[in-house]
Design a protein that fits this description.
With 230 residues, this protein is α+β, with helices and mostly antiparallel strands. It is built from 10 helices and 4 strands, in the order E-H-E-H-E-E-H-H-H-H-H-H-H-H. It has 2 domains: 109 residues, Glutaredoxin (3-Layer(aba) Sandwich), CATH 3.40.30.10; 104 residues, Up-down Bundle (Glutathione S-transferase Yfyf (Class Pi), Chain A, domain 2). Helix content is 53%, strand content 8%. The radius of gyration is 18 Å and the shape is globular. It binds glutathione. The site of glutathione has 15 residues, from helix 1 and helix 3. This is Glutathione S-transferase family protein. InterPro entries: Glutathione-S-Trfase_C-like, Glutathione-S-Trfase_C_sf, Glutathione_S-Trfase, Glutathione_S-Trfase_N, GST_C, Thioredoxin-like_sf. One of its GO terms (molecular function) is transferase activity. Belongs to the GST superfamily.
């Protein structure tokens, strides 16, 4: 049984959805990032960047326990383990990986900053909100143009590129986005939303998450606990 150290955020949802899509047995172990669980030594041992998600597979590639952090690496690993959602080894494999990297290096970080300045920053910073709203709209446009040419983001079939990206776009209402401005993306969005494994994946640990309002959680995530740790 795979242990998933996680929390119900977009990066956590990716892994929960992949495990559900693959039908793998797993146990979701909550790491409450608003309470500081990500700084506990046992979590840092598997995730030295103090971020969820991370996994431990008791049966790693060599038959021994194997731990991984970084959601993109986890998706690639689970795809390799099961032979699902990462086609190839022809060119489609690299096309899918290209869109996974686009999510990891662009969509996640930019939409993460968008959420930060729209929802969590203690004061309104119009320049930052404009910057990350513009960047969100640009990225939605890139995805929409891709989906005008391809049924799925990575290649002609549903893949880890879709699983990586959809959870971030799920919060479009909080990103200054109007989904109907991106018709190809909108169709793709709803097709993924209807998948039973996706519906199960987004429910994993979901009851535990509360709106990030208290000062203690803000301090942990954005203050001294985060930045003055030795
Ligand atoms: N690139 C990482 C990003 C992970 C990440 O940002 N996780 C956030 C939640 S979505 C987190 O654990 N934050 C806790 C912290 O920063 O202390 C991945 O994709 O796994």
């Amino acid at each position: 049984m795979i242990d998933v150290f996680s929390w119900p955020t977009p990066n956590g949802h990716k892994v929960h959805i992949m495990l559900e899509e693959c039908g793998l047995e797993y146990r979701a172990l909550p790491v409450n990032i608003g309470a500081g669980d990500q700084f506990k030594p046992e979590f840092l041992a598997v995730s030295p960047n103090n971020k969820i998600p991370a996994i431990t597979d008791p049966e790693g590639p060599d038959g021994r326990p194997f731990s991984l952090f970084e959601s993109g690496a986890i998706l690639v690993y689970l795809a390799g383990k099961t032979g699902r959602f990462l086609p190839g080894p022809d060119r489609t494999r690299y096309e899918v990986l290209q869109w996974v990297m686009f999510q990891m290096g662009g969509v996640g970080p930019m939409l993460g900053q968008n959420h930060h300045f729209r929802q969590y920053a203690p004061t309104s910073l119009p320049y930052a909100i404009d910057r990350y709203t513009n960047e969100a709209r640009r990225l939605y446009g890139v995805i929409d143009r891709r989906l005008a040419m391809s049924k799925w983001l990575g290649c002609g079939e549903y893949s880890i590129a879709d699983i990586a990206t959809w959870p971030w776009l799920r919060n479009w209402k909080n990103q200054g986005i109007e989904l109907s401005d991106y018709p190809h993306l909108e169709k793709w969005f709803h097709a993924i939303e209807e998948r039973p494994a996706v519906q199960r994946g987004v429910k994993v640990l979901a009851d535990l998450r509360k709106p990030l309002q208290d000062d203690k959680a803000r301090e942990i995530l954005f203050g001294k606990t985060q930045y003055e740790r030795r």
